[in-house]
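W.,

You were right to be curious about this one. When I first looked at the sequence I had no strong expectations either way, so I just let the prediction run and decided to look at it fresh. Below is the sequence, 273 residues in total, followed by the output.
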Amino acid sequence: MSHEADSAYAEGSVTTQRDDAILRVTLDRPARRNSLNKTMIETFVDVLVRAASDDSLRAIHIRGAGDDFCAGSDWVAANSPSGQRPRTGDLVRRVPHAAHRVIELVHSIQLPVVCSVQGWAVGLGCNLALAADFTIATTDALFWEPFIARGFSPDSGSTWLLPRLVGVARAKRMLLLGEQVTATDAADWGLIHQAVDAGELEQSTEELLTRLASGPTVAIGLAKQAMEFGQQATLGQAMTQELFNLELSCRTKDFKEGLEAFRQRRPPKFEGR
């Protein structure tokens, strides 16, 4: 890899900001539509791992800097000619701890995750938006899975996420034909939570984050875990898992507050504990 290519590959960052109980994660590489390089992915994984064990957090917001959300992994830079072929099995050995780990963490972390999307959400960026609990996008945003068009098979959870969200027929349109999907269609399909005008993106996102961050965080996390488990379980297995989660949530301070608020006929004031 040339010095110029190496420099381009290294630029960019994933930054975080605490806003009370909300962790805001920004993919900051606007010159390349926030495509994620190796360093950014490593940072992203570290941020999510630390967030998973932070009891003071109650929601996560993921956004892109500039005009786009995320144009996926920077495959061009990662595969620039270097004169040396990677070891056999390089992808199988490396990717599960990188891009795939980001999707797994976003999907499974026991905190509500909200993505706000503008511009392009491509490949890994598209799947990141799909793995989130809620994605709000501007009506002119585009969701695209370009894997086949680039000559390789889909990854980063697309073959698991898409059929479950929109069905096999529409998943094939996106994965095999490479169709780009507007945010309006994505919302109609159930691919994302909501499509809004560009001027409403921030307000709509903040309203949703505020609602989630003021909820019973433990119960929300357990409900998220139960839904993930239930996708691969029988009804009986899913209900057994629900009982274990119910046992845990009934021991929280928020459960007691919920009952007391119901008795007093007032809105509950959950603390996330």
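Here's what jumped out at me. The mean pLDDT is 89. And, maybe more interesting for your project: Strands lie at 13-19, 22-28, 59-64, 113-117, 120-122, 134-138, 142-144, 181-182, 194-196.

Coffee later to discuss?

I.
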